[in-house]
Design a protein that fits this description.
single chain, about 500 residues, mainly beta, six-stranded antiparallel β-sheet, five-stranded antiparallel β-sheet, globular, metal-binding, carotenoid dioxygenase activity, Carotenoid oxygenase family protein
């Protein structure tokens, strides 16, 4: 399984008889560890950084893809490394640091793997050395957010780690003012409601945790801008739930319960990682779980939708008596193979993500769906003021080719009203990641701003921070900031208008 799924002009060179727009060795170059930590002003720039762009882009992802001389089985098992790119007065500064989790510190000291990974990484010594060892490393490698004056590195199913936003030094695990107990999960996919009706129009952060089993329990948390807990409620739903993300509207938290089966025995007996024990059930249906954000008023509803597997949602909103949800959907779960090398991924054999829209009618319990974008795509982003509301523009990492699966090599802007598409490509030797929309201060149009994306440039073996004009994605980049090194393919990030840079300026 890979989230590096696949953009450029008609003059692009064809690199194979299969009409690919990339070279496999180029793509593999982005899957190398970055063991070093840097702190420097970015001086090598094509174009100009807009003077209005002020704040900090935080990115998280696996920075180490081996421990000692032993590689991880899947990049999702790699230790979290947070990057910060601070912008001010047309200048930029880069820094990166590993999250000093308990597991990272212990393994670096021992220079060998001491923990199993969710996605199949095993300690040396065979199954007997891994059997009945169910303790997993909190790798804090999935997302990073700044909220309530705290910078939090988030993992998939564990407590967050608090970092110093100016230095990225790890302060330690954060229990959110006593809310979380040791080992409690806190999702890596919070959503920010820009104008919460329950709080007089103030913004709030909404997140969740899930305890999966024969039945699964979902807990919803909502926080005010100071980081104080506003609301918390838990709900049990039948069946095993593999939940990576959620969507919100002013009234609902929305989850897609993917049609999968989980057999824990190979994990318990040391034969496989936990994610390798998840199997897609093609005969099942996707369950859409609607949890009211004001649970005293309504009950949880579960609707059946066409079978698919969803990691990420773009957005959701309510309109009259309908709820609409836009998501990246796969035909099946992209299985983690026990003996596979993720660097040798055969894109033709794994499903490609597409942008789907589901129209939900809670009253009649009906679900209709249509494909909004059939091109291979992942990591949707939109104007933050439109989260949970009807919206027009979405920005997605996309493949260069219109059909088939391939690495992400560009940014696709989709006008959901007119259907117009704009595509900026980094092909043939550039490989992208999650694009992030940043609004222009004082802007009024929904696409008035910039799209920031980190790109691995195989031609120079380095990564760039590319600034695109969100209103004209297929035009020339506003600026390309060339780093002094590569950054391994990351996962998620966020932008804050606070500029965290050195006290003496950039």
């Amino acid at each position: 399984m890979s989230t590096q799924n696949a953009c450029q002009t008609a003059t692009d060179r064809t690199l194979s008889t299969e009409n690919r727009f990339y070279d496999r060795q180029d793509w593999q170059g982005g899957y190398r560890s970055l063991p070093d930590e840097y702190d420097y002003s970015i001086d090598d720039i094509d174009g100009e950084i807009p003077s209005e762009l002020e704040g900090t882009l935080f990115r998280n992802g696996p920075g180490l893809l081996e421990v000692g001389d032993r590689p991880v089985h899947h990049p999702f098992d790699g230790d979290g490394m947070v990057c910060a790119i601070a912008f001010k007065d047309g200048r930029a500064h880069f820094k990166n640091r590993f999250v000093r989790t308990e597991g990272y510190i212990a393994e670096q000291k021992a220079n060998k793997m001491l923990y199993r990974g969710v996605f199949g990484t095993q300690k040396s010594g065979g199954w007997w050395a891994n059997a009945f060892d169910l303790k997993l490393k909190n790798i804090a490698n999935t997302n990073v957010i700044y909220w309530g004056e705290k910078l939090l590195a988030l993992g998939e199913a564990a407590e967050p780690h608090r970092l110093d936003p100016a230095t990225l030094e790890t302060i330690g695990k954060d229990d959110l003012n006593g809310l979380l107990q040791p080992g409690d999960a806190f999702s890596a996919h919070p959503r920010i409601d820009p104008c919460c009706e329950m709080d007089g129009g103030a913004p709030c952060l909404v997140n969740f945790s899930v305890k999966a089993g024969i039945s699964s329990t979902i807990t919803i948390y909502e926080f005010n801008p100071a980081g104080d807990l506003l609301r918390q409620h838990s709900h049990a739903i039948p069946g095993f739930a593999f939940l990576h993300d959620m969507a919100i509207t002013p009234n609902y938290c929305i989850f897609f319960q993917n049609p999968v089966r989980f057999n824990p025995l190979p994990f318990v007996f040391g034969l496989r990682g936990a994610a390798e024990c998840v199997a897609f059930d093609p005969s099942g249906t996707t369950k859409v779980v609607l949890i009211p954000r004001t649970p005293g008023n309504r009950e949880v509803q579960i609707l059946e939708a066409p079978s698919s597997f969803v990691f990420h949602h773009a957005n959701a909103w309510e309109e009259e008596d309908k709820i609409y949800v836009d998501s990246i959907a796969y035909d099946s779960f992209p299985t983690v193979e026990p003996d596979a090398d993720f660097r040798e991924l055969d894109f033709d054999r794994v499903p490609a993500g597409q942008l789907w829209r589901l129209e939900l009618s809670a009253g009649s319990k009906t679900v209709e769906h249509r494909v909004l974008e059939s091109r291979c795509c992942e990591f949707p982003s939109l104007h933050p003021q439109n989260v949970g509301r009807n919206y027009r523009y979405v920005y997605i990492g996309a493949a260069r080719a219109e059909t088939g699966n391939a690495p992400l090599q560009g940014v696709l802007k989709l006008d959901l009203h007119s259907g117009e598409r704009q595509l900026y490509s980094f092909a043939p030797r550039g490989f992208g990641s999650e694009p992030l929309f940043v609004p222009r201060p004082g802007g009024t149009a929904e696409d008035d701003g910039w799209v920031l994306v980190m790109v691995y440039d195989a031609a120079h073996d380095r990564s760039d921070i590319v600034i695109l004009d969100a209103g004209n994605i297929d035009g020339e980049p506003v600026a390309r900031l060339h780093l002094k090194h590569h950054v391994p393919y990351g996962l998620h990030g966020s932008f804050t208008s606070e500029c965290f840079a050195k006290s003496n300026g950039l």
